[in-house]
Amino acid sequence: MSVIAVRKNLPKELTSYDLIKSLAVILMICDHVGFIFFPEEMWFRTLGRLCLPIWFFLIGYARESEIPKSF
Fold first, then answer.
1. Does the global pTM surpass 0.90?
2. Each residue's pLDDT tens digit, 52-66
3. Were 24 and a residue from 6, 11, 51, 61 both cysteine, which residue would form a disulfide, CB within 3.0 to 4.6 Å?
4. CB within 8 A of 21, min separation 6: which ones?
């Protein structure tokens, strides 16, 4: 299945920024799970620390600085 065929099934509002945000959220969950359940395993925390640069990247490249009032 090609990328174009997959893209046709997705909503138009879904962008690559949403994919990057999802990755950042998953990494943040890894960090929190590692902190609570596996404090001796540092690789959970290391993966989780990657979400901060991702969020800074997204903030820096935000297309709009204002959130629309209606959705």
1. no
2. 999 888 888 766 666
3. 51
4. 58
Angle between helices 16-37 and 51-60 in degrees, nearest 10: 150
For residue 59, how far is the Cα from the chain centroid?
A: 12
Q: What is the pLDDT of residues 22-41, one digit of tens each?
A: 999 999 999 999 999 999 99
Name the residue among 19, 51, 17, 21 with its Cα closest to residue 34: 51
Q: Per DSSP, which regions of 1-71 are E strands?
A: none
Distances (CA, A) of 70 to 18, 38, 42, 63: 19, 42, 42, 17
DSSP code of residue 68? -
For the chain, domain boundaries: 13-60
| Mean pLDDT rounded to a whole number for the chain | 80
